[in-house]
Amino acid sequence: MNQPRNIGLTIIGIALLSSCQFEKSGATGWNFNDSKNGGFEKAPFEEQENGPGLILIEGGQFTMGRVTDDLTHEWDNIPRTVTVSSFYMDEVEVTNFYWLEYLYWLDRVYSADFPEVCKKALPDTLVWRSKLAFMEPKVEYYLRHPAYRDYPVVGVNWLQANDYCAWRTDRVNEVILIREGLFEHYPNQINEDHFTTDSYLASQYESGKKVDGVQDFNPNKDTRNIKMEDGILLPRYRLPTEAEWEYAAFGLVGNTVDERVVERRVYPWNGHWVRFDSRKKGGAFYGDFRGNFMRGRGDYMGVAGSLNDNGDITTPVFSYWPNDYGLYNMAGNVSEWVMDVYRPLSPEDKDDFNPLRGNVFKTKVLNSDGGIKDKYDKVIYDIPGIKLFLEEFQKKMAGRATEEEGKLIDDLVTKITQAEELKNTRKGDPANQNVQDMVDMIKGQDLEICPKLLAGISDYQTDQPGEVQSRDVTIEENIDRRTYQQADNINYKDGDIESSIYFTDPEKQDPMYANAGETFSTYMTLINDHARVYKGASWADRIYWASPSTRRYLNERQSTPTIGFRCSMTRVGSPVGLGDEKRRSKLNK
User: Fold this and answer.
1) SS (H, E, C) 193-217
2) pLDDT tens per residue across span 29-61
3) Is 230 part of any domain?
4) Same domain, 352 and 384
5) Which of 321, 319, 357 is nearest to 340 (CA)?
């Protein structure tokens, strides 16, 4: 009993002694955290905090791509060795209840003045409808009935999934600051006056502060906001890249001996079969399916009394055994959105370290003093997208619209064309005001098509009130940069002139996947810069798609009853961190 007490007293004595001294810089010899010499700070930091719902996926190299016959003959997943950095991934898919929490927050903050923001976030429950099936109960109950609260959310498109990731980042970092005693729960946030991580770091959000900040060792200041250098705020939640998702789904950490992968997996488990095959590992589940997918034509769940996957459609997210990383439903239940833009030849084109196609580099908008410009206080719209929508709406309504409806549609097309001209001449504010005028025009008339027009325009938002203003980087500010020049690199090495079928005709030298001059139908259906990859099998897919190596694509604005998503987060610092006891014990010796 005395020995532990003596050790404890020794530790306390050392701590008290060290508190009277300053740690010195190994480069200059100056003290850290000493206001007498300017107060350059070194924050205590040991390890990245694990965000809610996340599991650490230790990175490494693996063979990405096809492991079975290419049944679709797409030749779009050629095997290739790549390396993925360590990252975090959600243990389960985002559920209906998580999404309802998101909708509730948006309604509380935006519904009074910006109801279009709430409208944009609504999942499309009508994706359940089928012309030759009775699916109305799913339309009415799946999202909101408590019986489905732990089921994966569906009817969410790629853009909505990204918006959720950004919102989740802000809510998690806000509750961290509340936990640290810097903020209090402030439920009166409204419109642009709400917490976002970027606005807080830019000193553009003060509401809800419990204290002025933390002590600032700068002798000319008393307190300051938390900075990224403090290591308290978490990196952004985001969609996983295609490589990350495939790597995590295979879970090769479970069948690797040192650096030798003992079996090239086809599915997220060992073997070429889809049922539990061992009474020892699986126990009472022997013979049951390992995931929720379609066994054969017309067989979605099996025979009464012995359902093979216990699910007619989706199932609760904690169903079935997880893979060797602890991730649930990486094969079956729902397919999942990933970050990448789809191209058939991505395996050949992308880098072999953290591969991704889809980079559009952005930077903060600055004011004339060089500081970050004030955050948005209005909704910002995707003007080219709205123009495509209105032109298609006008085409569909031809011959069916009343005189008043036809005039309204014509006026809207005229206004959006003017807005596009303003945007092309870098007059963003007047262009966006044109769209707001269009919204007011629609609200000012009581016509049957008005709700449809408002709903359609609401889907084409790019930024909401409260977000810090950002823009694409420009070529002129990257004159001396070797790694990149322009912002949009989606078509890099892929949309060149040589890839066009008209490469010999100077008048028709359009890239193969160009978006210029596209119609609404090509915008929504063909492979272009808006086609996004989704991975894995769903409840309505055959077992072939349960292999993580398979890949499919869909327009980023479309959704289905079979696609959901889960979030990821970048791992900063060491790939293994404090958990690598074996390596650390060697270093200590």
Assistant:
1) ECCCHHHHHCCCCCCCECCCCEECC
2) 999 999 988 999 998 888 899 999 999 999 999
3) no
4) no
5) 357
Do 383 and 465 touch, CB atoms closer than 8 A? no
Q: Domain check: are 76 and 15 in the same one? A: yes
HSE (side-chain half, CA atoms, 13 Å) at 486 = 5
Pick from 402, 313, 350: nearest CA to 96 = 313
* Phi, psi dihedral angles at 216 (to 5 degrees): -105, 125
What pLDDT, in 10s, does the model give residues 358-395? 999 999 999 988 999 999 999 999 999 999 999 999 99
Token pair recorded at residue 495: 């949309």
Q: How many CB atoms lie within 10 A of CB 578?
A: 10
| Domain around 445 | 380-463
Using CA atoms, how far apart are residues 40 and 546, in angstroms rounded to an integer? 53
In a domain, residue 76? The reply is yes
Q: Where are the beta strands (DSSP E) in 368-507?
A: 380-381, 461-463, 470-472
pTM of the predicted protein model: 0.91
Query: Beta strands 335-341 and 563-564: pairing type?
Result: parallel
Residue 549 in contact with residue 147, Cβ under 8 Å?
Answer: no
Q: Which residues contact 468 (CB under 8 A, 6 or more apart)?
A: 196, 198, 199, 202, 204, 364, 372, 375, 376
Residue 462 dihedral angles phi and psi, to the nearest 5° = -110, -30
Q: Are residues 445 and 354 both part of a single domain?
A: no
Task: Please tell me the distance from the alpha carbon of residue 517 to that of residue 351, in angstroms, as a whole number.
Answer: 30
Domains of the chain: total = 2
Residue type, 341: V
Q: Which amino acid is at 257?
A: V
Helix (H, G, I), strand (E, B) or coil at 65: coil
Distances, alpha carbon 511 to alpha carbons 365, 501, 532, in Å: 30, 9, 18
Domain boundary among 407, 442, 463: 463
What tokens appear for 369 in the block?
A: 């003093």
Q: Quickly list H helices, 43-196.
A: 96-110, 115-121, 136-141, 158-179
- Whole-angstrom distance, CA of residue 270 vs CA of residue 215: 54
> How far, in Å, CA of 311 to CA of 323, rounded?
19
Question: Contact, 486 vs 362, CB < 8 A?
Answer: no
Residues 255 and 156 in one domain: yes
- How many Å apart are CA 11 and CA 16, to the nearest integer? 9
